[in-house]
Amino acid sequence: MKAVVFVLCLPLIGCAAGASDRFASAGKATGIASYYGAESGRRTASGEWFRPEGLSAAHRTLPFGTRLSVTNLATSQTCIVRVNDRGPALWTGRVLDLSTGAARLCGLIKSGTARIAYSILGD
User: In the chain, pLDDT over 70 holds for what percent of residues?
Assistant: First the structure.
């Protein structure tokens, strides 16, 4: 019975990722970003130490080390970050969680969240 439920839900899993994640494979996407100010001294999903004032981001699927150009669509402020963590949780509807340092440069500290556009940068 559990296998049947899983198979029936499988098509829904692809829909849950949202349009933004489909566009991310093309190198560009938009969506809502927030920031997290976890304390230093914890490890990110990539294994490196989290630095709140660093320029890093959490994304659900992009490979660790991917560099992104992130633009706050309300203010046109831009920063470049590197993916080193996983998140945000799917149920939040957000596409990126930025470190506090990146959020400051992108102008979303005060608002907490912002509609952003991001693109993958080449090496």
Answer: 76
